[in-house]
């Protein structure tokens, strides 16, 4: 049990399997692809089980790529969409710290002005109509020239 901004939270620790077939992240540098194993923590609200914050790190440096550190922090917040009467937990801010080839990089983002959209679709399923009987010698048939030629030349019986 932990505390985040005055609220009780569960703090979960995780680490990816060493199995490369189960890697969550791949890093492409030049023409090479490196599978990065991640470890991290998640802060989950005790009463609602909503994810409030996530942090991930490399489980081990990728020495061959000179990629020694990656630390990602994501803070989530409830976003209310009044017109749809819905509340979603979405990223509010992210911070990324990287150490690559002896240099350190930092990138931060804050997110706002979310838009919610939806797409509706309908599907009508019905039985297919049986094909019309086709007379290949009938010149008024609705077949394309290629289809007529194939029928006239005769296809092998099924």
Short description:
This protein has one helix and nine strands; from the N terminus they run βββββββββα.
| N-C termini distance | 70 Å
The helix content is under 10%
- Beta-strand portion reads over 45%
- Please identify the structural class as seen in this structure: mainly beta
The radius of gyration computed from the alpha-carbon positions, rounded to a whole number of angstroms, is 29 Å
The number of helical segments is 1
The global form is extended
Helix-strand topology string: EEEEEEEEEH
Strand order of the largest sheet: 1-2-5-6-7-8-9
Described by strand count, sense and barrel closure, the largest sheet is:
7 strands, antiparallel
Mean pLDDT: 85
Unreliable residue runs: 146-150
Q: What's the total number of strands?
A: 9
Structure description:
The protein has 158 residues and is mostly beta strands. It has a domain at 2-110. It is built from 1 helix and 9 strands. The protein has a 7-stranded antiparallel β-sheet with strand order 1-2-5-6-7-8-9, with no helix packed on it. It has a two-stranded antiparallel ribbon with strand order 3-4. The longest helix has 9 residues, at 145-153. Residues 146-150 have low confidence and may be disordered.
């Amino acid at each position: 049990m932990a505390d985040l901004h005055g609220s009780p939270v569960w703090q979960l620790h995780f680490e990816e399997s060493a199995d490369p077939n189960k890697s969550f992240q791949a890093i492409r540098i030049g023409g090479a692809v490196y599978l990065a194993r991640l470890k991290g923590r998640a802060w989950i609200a005790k009463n609602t089980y909503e994810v409030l914050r996530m942090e991930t790190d490399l489980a081990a440096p990728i020495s061959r790529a000179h990629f020694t550190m990656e630390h990602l922090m994501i803070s989530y917040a409830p976003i209310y969409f009044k017109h749809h009467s819905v509340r979603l937990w979405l990223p509010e801010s992210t911070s990324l710290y990287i150490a690559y080839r002896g240099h350190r990089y930092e990138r931060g983002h804050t997110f706002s002005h979310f838009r919610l959209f939806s797409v509706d679709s309908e599907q009508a399923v019905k039985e297919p109509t049986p094909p019309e009987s086709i007379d290949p010698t009938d010149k008024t048939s609705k077949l394309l020239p290629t289809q007529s030629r194939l029928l006239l030349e005769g296809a092998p019986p099924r």
